[in-house]
Amino acid sequence: MPAAAAATLGDAELAQIDAQWRAANYLAAGQIYLMANPLLREPLRPGQIKPRLLGHWGTSPGLTFVYAHLNRAILEHGLDAMIVTGPGHGGPALLASTWLEGSYSQLWPEVSRDEEGMGRLFRQFSFPGGVPSHVSPHVPGSIHEGGELGYSLAHACGAAFDNPGLVVACVIGDGEAETGPLATSWQASRFLDPRRDGAVLPILHLNGYKIANPTVLSRIPPSELDSLLRGAGWAPSYVEGDEPAPMHQAMAAALDAVVADLAALRRHRGGRPWPMIVLRSPKGWTGPATVDGAQVEGTWRAHQVPLARVREDPEHLRQLESWLRSYRPDELFDDRGRPTAPVTALIPRGDRRMGMSPHANGGVLVRPLALPVVAEHVVEVPEPGAVTTEPTRVLGRFLREVFRRNAEQANFRLFGPDETASNRLDAVYEVTGKAWQLPPGPAGDHLASDGRVMEVLSEHLCQGWLEGYLLSGRHGLFSCYEAFAHIVDSMVNQHIKWLRVHREIPWRRPVASLNYLLTSHVWRQDHNGFSHQDPGFVDHVANKAPEVVRVYLPPDTNTLLEVAAHCLRSRDYVNVVVVGKDPAPNWLDAGEAALHCAQGVGIWEWASTHPGREPDVVLACAGDAPTLEVLAAASILRASLPELAVRVVNVVDLMRLQPAGEHPHGLGDREFDAVFTPDRPVIFAYHGYPWLIHRLAYRRTNHAGFHVRGYVERGTTTTPFDMLVLNRMDRFQLVVDVIDRVPGLLATAGPLRQRMTRTRERHRSWITEHGEDLPEVREWRWPRR
Amino acid sequence: MPAAAAATLGDAELAQIDAQWRAANYLAAGQIYLMANPLLREPLRPGQIKPRLLGHWGTSPGLTFVYAHLNRAILEHGLDAMIVTGPGHGGPALLASTWLEGSYSQLWPEVSRDEEGMGRLFRQFSFPGGVPSHVSPHVPGSIHEGGELGYSLAHACGAAFDNPGLVVACVIGDGEAETGPLATSWQASRFLDPRRDGAVLPILHLNGYKIANPTVLSRIPPSELDSLLRGAGWAPSYVEGDEPAPMHQAMAAALDAVVADLAALRRHRGGRPWPMIVLRSPKGWTGPATVDGAQVEGTWRAHQVPLARVREDPEHLRQLESWLRSYRPDELFDDRGRPTAPVTALIPRGDRRMGMSPHANGGVLVRPLALPVVAEHVVEVPEPGAVTTEPTRVLGRFLREVFRRNAEQANFRLFGPDETASNRLDAVYEVTGKAWQLPPGPAGDHLASDGRVMEVLSEHLCQGWLEGYLLSGRHGLFSCYEAFAHIVDSMVNQHIKWLRVHREIPWRRPVASLNYLLTSHVWRQDHNGFSHQDPGFVDHVANKAPEVVRVYLPPDTNTLLEVAAHCLRSRDYVNVVVVGKDPAPNWLDAGEAALHCAQGVGIWEWASTHPGREPDVVLACAGDAPTLEVLAAASILRASLPELAVRVVNVVDLMRLQPAGEHPHGLGDREFDAVFTPDRPVIFAYHGYPWLIHRLAYRRTNHAGFHVRGYVERGTTTTPFDMLVLNRMDRFQLVVDVIDRVPGLLATAGPLRQRMTRTRERHRSWITEHGEDLPEVREWRWPRR
Description:
- 2 copies of one chain form a homodimer.
- Chain A is 37% helix and 13% strand.
- By secondary structure, chain A is an alpha/beta fold.
- The first copy, chain A, has 3 domains: 11-360, Thiamin diphosphate (ThDP)-binding fold, Pyr/PP domains (Rossmann fold), CATH 3.40.50; 383-584, Thiamin diphosphate (ThDP)-binding fold, Pyr/PP domains (Rossmann fold); 602-778, Rossmann fold (3-Layer(aba) Sandwich).
- Chain A is elongated and about 95 Å long.
């Protein structure tokens, strides 16, 4: 233990840092318990205790310890630093520390840095109408709530990318260290560029316990822990103990060494492990040692509220008061409740306070992306269906220009789990590589230490890095196989919840949206099969706050470009864009695409028949594969039933289907009825699970007329067209649906219906024998206008 | 490299193992390419090549190499072994290996072990109507499809639990090793008991590349890799190279050493690292070295189909034929296409063939759980609402008896991410502990090396372990905070997909269902707040195959016991049970609960008014918190509007709401109308997102009459009742909804409506001031019958 080896701190500094720490611990405990009498000017009375004791003491003293020491290091070394705190329920510690440094009162003036403000700080915590126990958007300097565990280190890395002067300290709880996302986050050491990026400083806090169990990393032999961390590319220093004075010396020494190591790493441009700290201290450190005869400090019993019956049990009340007074509040706060000079001596000023780091309120730093002109990338579409392109390949060229135009401001990255090339975005490699600090491979790998494409086979890391990158004021796009976006379901939940709250906080400025490009989608899993078929990510996000969620299903390349440009300009959203990567026909030229995307939903007159008439049936579609089938069905109907008035409607902005009162993009009822009619049958071919359309449209006048086709979990390894047949969304089935649902049509269209049904059957037997679609399916072409 | 150190294999054995490997490689490549001419009896012609070349060669030769060597080790040491193959698209290798050993033809007799069968084996692969490219349920000996990456090691551990004689070899791809779930899976070394459990043998296969990128673990310095693995509790042996003969020697020696190490580990009852193997071999090993001038073998270009234009390009065709002939098929297969003696010499027989392992077809081993009698655990309910219990605490006592009654057959485990005690199931600790091989902590930790409760702060590990445990023929329950079940969304997708296919395979026997207990649910997040509020896991699974998915929302303790017993008896399902852990009133006595659960949905006459009359309004509820509010609203209506006929309906089996044609549990339309009426307003209080009810019931006669309340993402840290108010599902709002929707009622009930609205407002201001609910809310009691 290096603790007592050399006195890094002089006596005065030691006293100051300890005062700062005691003050923060006092404030953390006070928040959990006190509704009144914040400075203990009188003996504690039960009525001054909150009626519901909610909060988590266990992790707090470790976090305040780290915060105080980072403060000292910032002053000592002139660091530009921010902090990410992974352990759950670290709220009290961060609220205390930011109140002490003054950032809290600066941003929330009603919680002033005096006795009255301290009273408010205490009362509001975990109180109805107050603030939650996590490090929520409400907390100055936070980009990481920590309500769900495991994402701290990924967020910290995201914030460090392209911020070469920044140190992102990241406290990792030993509980969250057991999660998968955190376990693989250590590999970030292979992706951080010491020249171009900032430093991430992991501080693994081993306090020994999670909610009710010891933690793995705190119990394995220290030699194994050291081996594990070194194997992941880190060089740990250890700060271990429970005596405050030697712990202060050890932590200060460790941080000084880290600063020196980081400087050396930058000088040598990598090639050595990144420094980190392992902090081993008791859970609930400095809190009640034993309660009712059971050990609390240093065990899982310190996780939440160490003294639980303070209002009812005079002994608990007495113990609480003695615990609070053990910090000697009269030394820490003056008679007006302001922190005293020793407490604030080692606290930085201005934007160097971690609570005021602009990187943690990225909206104040965000610079708009310089976007290429969409018109320079659009596909010429002389006739609908005449030209075939791979939508994502064209988008890749657009993104290449995004990289090119923003090279100097260095604020855009593309994230993907080993799929950028598979998703056909590889034009970007003409201007940037894939970030990679390990030995390069053969030519053609496109690896570069300063690459701006982040490829790692972990959706969790892609998502976490991107979130950190966005919240610190930059832009990005996550391209992912559609089915495997579910891997980050829970992460996107947390990000949407963060954004919903962040939007309500006056001092938080809008940040760039989180943009998903979901491709390699359910209808094109020719060689991947059933395990890769799941269009439900849209359903998942559609449950979330409508203020934040947007879903786009561009039917072709030009609409994709419009949607992508819109998403890259937007703020404070989660945008989900679903589109295929395979060659597909184009329907709209540049002007039509721009108009269609602006409207979000539109009648395609050119594909409809008898445009002057009220339609007999509406063929609606959302998604590229359904659009193709609907147009094919419409062409069959046009040829075979020329008297039938068919209206083709395409939906590119899915949230247009929701009522206007439910979603900001929702169509008004009158507009909706104008498009979908109040009473005609609507055959709706949808990209995903069909019931999502019902869930979005169930309040509409004509909802009972909606008949939706989509993916119904009938999948295997087969051709794209056969997938449609298996799920009954193929053109032939859609024609059958029309015939079955337009009143009286069966009488005249019986033979057509029979032909359609027979074609479906012939296809099934043909494909099983030949391994290919029925020739007439493959040869189908959209008839020209 | 230990390769040439000592000749583990004699000349004959070396020739035999190489013949087996070559045969498997030939069969793997043949599956990707050939529709005919499987034994190359004539020169290859383009028409014999499949029209669509789908498949993945890159990983295959490594997998066949491992399989052949495991075969030798099984024979040499009399092992009982099975194999889990993590790398994606390993299908060709496993299909080849099981066909060679005869298990494939035994289970799929039409694919016989002769020329005709080989032709079928080739043709069916990645062919419409054939078999997928993953190691799907169709493949003998598989419990792990590998379509989504990262779960192999967790599945292998699950299979090893409670199987002391078993060796579960687990090939881990270096791509999947980058995923979070795999990264934390290494920590299984802390949970496997060498006395009680089987051995897991990880074989980390570093072939250097994933789809389009090098892999992290293949490029870090070997010393770091070694450090990483040792730090995670494993002792790696290395088998590295590309020359077949020394590689065979090295692999055989490594496996012999592993067997010796495992024996020693068992003898010493732990205390040392588990052995594992690192296999470093080229991607696409033995395939085309270069194609069209570019290096293929040993690069990412070997990932899928190394020669892509075989039908069109004569040079590719020539190269394919020469590649296939390089395995010397005439030595490997006799004139009838059967494997020759050298090929089969080192293949085990009978159930020792890995394809025939009963552990990989768990249904043949599964023994029903001996379940305690529900009646011995039920709560006495003299009057509805008179008795309050914590539902999960009572369930914990039931589960304690499950452990007790099945102690001998040792086939039940409880899984939870550090939440078993928090979820109040801790009665189980009276009979078993938490599995833990590290140093024990202070008393009260309930840690035990042979504990049957699996606690680790990783939902991924809980899920993966449980899946492996179930598929190998055992039983389990996963208790999880409701919001964080989303962490395993994608895993449960894969498991449901597995079960759907498994149910269609004649030789697969039913396995125990995967049971979720989701508690600490959205309505009771008093100290956790917004980040812990998400009832959407039910929505997620409701999208999946109805053959597999079941969702239960027991309204109280006795119904929970009935549901839990039912789930633990069931087979081949994923059962999701959502219930609170906090003290809550009981409504149904034992008999009523049994009947109600058998029906799944029922009219609660005792809570309704004017039972003889057609109701004026239906108050429906699903979930414990909504049930309480509906009953409270019904009691207000009964007191204030005695003339109103109110019917109270409770739904415990959510899938009863779906049409009978959509889900096996769906109510017939006539029954549905009888319960919910064809035309009266239905005020439905639902536990989760309200639109799920619409999505399930949109085809019902009275759907337009449904008005659903639920969670609408309005959450924070506040009281449970305030959460209801914020989301407008509180009793007062429900009364308002009734008044607003029953035609003509407003005329008489205006004053009541006003009183309800005012009470809601008073509550909001009261709680903000006092931190507690309005006293009249807290004091509310269900009036006795």
